[in-house]
Design brief:
The protein is built from four helices and three strands, in the order βββαααα. The chain is an alpha+beta fold.
Length: about 80
Amino acid sequence: MKTKHTPGPWRVQNTSEIVFCDTILIADVYGVYKYREPNAKLIAAAPELLKACEQMCEVLERTAMYDKVGQSYYNGMKAIKKATT
């Protein structure tokens, strides 16, 4: 699947609240202080998480295993759609 987002890898800057890809600002995380760093880390992992989810769903489709894992497969497909459309 062709990505429409800034390609990774994304990284959390030293401040623990800013996410970059090379010199491109991806996100400046605000909100409750104790959640800023964990949220920044989750945002920084987004490209890898999306790729892993896509790969797992592709394997399940190729091996016809999606019917055996049920809701997990459909949740993965829903997350991919949310991230890519």
